[in-house]
Amino acid sequence: MADKKKQQQQEELEPIVQQESLQFKPGEYLVHILLQQTRALQNPNDNESTIDPLIQIETMDQKKFSSQKKGTGSNSTLVWNEHFYFKRSFSNGWQIQSQHVKISVLDHKVFGRNAVVGIYELDFSTIYMMDNHVLLHKWLGLINPEKDFNKITGYLKMSINVVHESDKQTTLIMDNEIKERGKIEETKNNLFAEGELLLPPHIQTKGQQLKITLGRASNLMKMDSMLGSIDPYLLFEIGGQEIQTDLIKNQNAPNWELNLFLPVMTPCQSEYLIMRLFDYDMGGKDEIAGSQLFKISEILSGQLQQPKWYHIYGAHIDAESDQRVYLCSHPDLGTCYAGRILLSMELVDSELPKKDKQKITDQKTLEKIRADVSYQWSFQCMVYFALNLPVDDDSYSIKIKWGEHECKTSSEKAKNGVVEYYKYLTIDNVRFPTKEISELPDVFIYLMDGDKPICFKRYKSYNLNPTAEHPEGHHFTVTLIPDKSLKNTPMDHPGIVKIKFLIQPTGGQAKIQQVVKPQRDANSFLYVNLFQAHDLAPTDMDGLADPVVDILFYDQKQTTVLINDTTAPIWNTQLKMPVYKFENDSFPPIILKIFDQDKVSRDFMGQLTIDYQKGLKKGFITKNQSTITKPQWIDVYLYGSKAGQVLLSCNYIDNATIKIPNQISPPRIKHFIKIKLLGLRNLKSFGPLPVTKAFAKFNIQSIRAKDEPLSLNNGSEIITQPKDAGPNPNITSIICLEVNLPEDDAFMPKFIGSVHDYILKGLMQPLIGQFSIDLKLQKLKTLKQIEEKKDIAKRVLNGTIQVDQNIIHLPSLDLGVGIKMGALLSMASGEQFNEEINNLLTQLGILRNNSIHMDQIIKYIEYDKNEEEGTFFEVDKPDSKYYLPLGYDTQTQKSQLYVQRKKLGGQQIQNKSLNQVELQIKSSQQGQQGLIKSNVHYRLCLPCPLEDTVFMQQKVFDIFPLRKGSINLREVESMAEIILGVKENQLNTGKLKGWVEVISQQDLEKLQAQPEFKLIKNEYDFTSGKSDTNLTDKELVVKNQVTIRLYIIDCSNLPPKDQDSMSDPYLKIRLGKESIDDVENKITDNCNPQYYRRYDITTELPGASELTIQVWDYDDFMPDELIGQTVIDIEERYFQQRFRQLKQIPIETRQLIHPSSSMPQGQIRLFLEIIPSKQTSILKNPWFIEQRPKAKHFIRCVVWDVLDVPSHDDEGSSDLYVVGYVDQNQKQKTDTHFRSFNGKGSFNWRMVFPIELPQLQQCVLTFQIFDKDIFTSDDFISDCSIDITELCRRAFENETNIKMYSQTEPPSDGILKQDAQTKQTNKGILYEKNVIQTINTEKAGYKSNQQNGKLVVSIEIVSEQFHNKNPVGLGRSQPNHSPVCPEPTGRIEWTWNPCKMLNQLLGPKAIRYLLLAICFMFAGYMLVMLFPIITGNLMTRIFTG
Asked: Taking a C-beta distance cutoff of 8 angstroms, is the pair 1146, 946 a contact?
């Protein structure tokens, strides 16, 4: 409770805060879904036939389908590897909150309705609240709600990523789990590892019903203004399922007395149950009146089992329609009370959960919900005054609503924007059905213009009860919220009310003391010390403003002087305002309203409201202090958005003997400013002409106050000379200034400048954009850079570090430790050290002892040999999570490297040179040089851009954006804009690039006295503009030719741009006027294309610096479409000393962004080198990164026999055949083994499947066993899936033939007469013939499967070259070898022996039935034939006897 109070008693200095219940930010959302695998899909109609699965995905009112698979059995493993993208923009959080992702697996029917195999549904909040907003590689248990809610009908493996436009997107790729052949059975039994299955089979999913016991409602909002009533009904929604109550007409206190039932699956994947109240309209659309949320966790824990009243909040009846829906759909944003509802919720067990509603018949329950229990409460408040009212001489009142009860002040006219109420209001002896203050309705405060509310504020009741700290209630300075839903609210005069509240049970002892109107005190004054502001919202089209400040204190108002053409004005002025004799609780707030003063109007730029008591606590307001109070920066807000800061303090004096100084300008000392200008980049002209020759102006007046003289010998402005033409001109100037700046950095101003175009020899100089330089930040950065270099210089002097070309020594500042200045700079600049990446680099041994060890960025491999198999494998292979293999070795190279390693005695070979062509290795054996090297190297792969890591932690250049444009507040028209904030209309017109160094003379003199500074003093000459010994300074004025060598590895998560397929991506590269369009190497239908290509671009630096890498989608008939792009600043890397030292460059991952959206459009992995033209040896020897070309292989498998197959015919026999496939479009089948009576079938049938390696997805070989029928469709018996991914990988990488062996000996009795080929290994005897169990899953889960036979098969993967030289026939046709497939045994043999032939055709079981039938027929025949004789003999004996 204390935490809630603290959160709700928010600082009145802050703006309107978006409510905490909004988990989702409005904006554009992307849902990326990767379908990976399905298993154990059950036939929705029976268990003896195959299905044609198709997956349907529904989300955000969109529907998409996967491809269709045909003829799959219940044990088939299907690999999908299909990506789906859904994108949609939402205007509010509740629209997103109600979204779901529904996955349906269907059995496709050509004619008729598709049958449902299984369904799984998740809501957005479940996914979005996961780590990185991603559900990654999870198995989902599917259910078919149309049949059995409790039975799992299959499993689907998938990944889902839900991201907002401001979130980082997660790359979704197939995990390609490789399972060892010898552990197939173990793998099946442990198919779903812990944490991998969202609803694991050993935790039985339990179908339950959510029971909602709905009693009655009270004081519902009257929606029909003419009739004064409501026709209410409720709608409950959870996990995409809805149920609606009965409609009760013309009743604002309806009595439902219903039990509502909704089926839910536990564990539940939804986070909230949503209840909405609607008003039925016969002739139009039903209107929402309010809503409420219920946490599923509270329902599951039983917290809502007892009937309880829940309050509903909505919007005023005359609110604008769309905004009314928005407010009514957000319980925490409602602007008025809409009633309360009595209900309870619980989960109950049910064998067959279903949606239902029933009248309550249980008497105990009826007694509970009909009981009229209420408790008396009292409400007190003291309304002091209202300030900042819209119009003078208009009448305003304050109305307070507490549930259905209200109280109101009298209506008074405003004078100087103030109404003095000093009115004590009470709501006594009201009854609410609760004794807990946390369950009372919220309190609404309204500013009324006549009978219309124009502004409001809302407080929780539990914030208003007396506490030990506030025994007589809580006082608030309430900044009201303009209610734009009513369309009559003034935007720049929302109203501020001083008020005191107290809520307690009736009979409580606490009482608010009434306060009388204050009288003016001739000895009391408030001194407002206004120093400066910065980052104010620009309101002029040139990106500037002419700010002036109105300071309002009660009925007093004073205005500052006007400062022209700046968003960082300096006033250094003191304003004196008389003060009334206020009580402490009633002391009015200090209001600062900032305007842009134009000739004919004033544009509102922002406001801040300072509460006197809170200012005293924070220290920027003092009482009776004779010195100027130390100021603080206070945020300015523009209706929810931060719009700058103001530096001010206040002195409150009520003692005539105390005098304070009226001069508040801070003391200034001499500073040196050195600006090294590189140039202007990416300039944009929004006029009819392009940018010709741009130049920069620096406004010296912007860093001085109005009452101060020009600083030292500098003029009022500094102008650079227009030189180079075009949008990327080099300036290459060094500006040195000596200026007087504040000694205290808290008063440090911002340096304002502008960029103009030079047209017609200067007759026209149109503005391109404005920029500002934060001198405080630049001063801190200068001191930090000096401290860093001193740190390294000191270690050099101490001998603690040594020069090593493979080590880059870092100052402790880069790791965020050791020097306090680092933390200070981090606070000032917003920089944050990426601890996660630093920890990773430390773990890998790259970052240690404040140094980067480059020998761990790239790792080289060696080979050992598997003598049993004759294949080579890599030794000491780096972790594939962090290192990416580049290049490949042929089998000959592997063999040579293996022999070389043996000659060196197993000594590991390390290649530390940049040159990738020639390797020089010094070994323990003399004369060992010029050894053969591997083409493969493993390179560190970073999950982020290089700029975000310690490899480039420090920025060389300061980048100052150029902006032009304004903020237009007249466009703010909705409550959503007020709550979410207004957006700037400013245009980014380019950037100024250079160094800015700032240091005070005092700091410089202290540094010069330190011995380690002497080693670096030549780099910090602040008094001369000529080039010094710093390498980058010299290179500023000389253009150098360099080659940008770009290595593109791959892209991932590219969204589809085609209607019915994935994108066809290709690359475009731009740098200044140079461009590369690589459309010839486009990759068709792939959202994760792999390129492994190198591109060289020659350019001059300094110059055009932005290397733009674009990914485009190729179209045959329509124009190609941009997918996304990333931009790399080449100059930033070229001039950075650390990047130059980085001889081995890691791979970086960069987001692809489309210019029209802030949503990432995928990622691209790359690394680049900047090679000066003089380094010819490196230019001639690029890195070899190509991957082994794809190669065609053949999977040769022989289906020898099947065993233990159950009979599917009445006579106990089966006509068996086997179907095999890797690709469903290339199925092959054996001949038919007719009349199998013992579950055995002999085939000796060869199948050959072509396959292209490597495969980007899991490679699965599937076999299915069928029983052939003549007059009906063939019966599916069972199937099995064999993962041959590892076999394919070994065959491809080793360029050799690979056979699959197992430790299970194939049976040799009965029809199996061939001996199995074997080989002896350290694991014992391995058999080429593999015995695979075939399984038919008839029940839920793999643990209840049923074995339906065994398959004896041999598998070999061969290369295309070997296959062409040694061809084999299909089946048993010629050429028949490797191995030989003889004629099968155990089949029907022709014979003239009728008994033997009959036995083969009918089988033993049928023969037994036939003989038994013959015996019965003979016995019957004999009985019929002998019956007359026997009967005659009996009659003769009877009559003659």
From this structure: yes
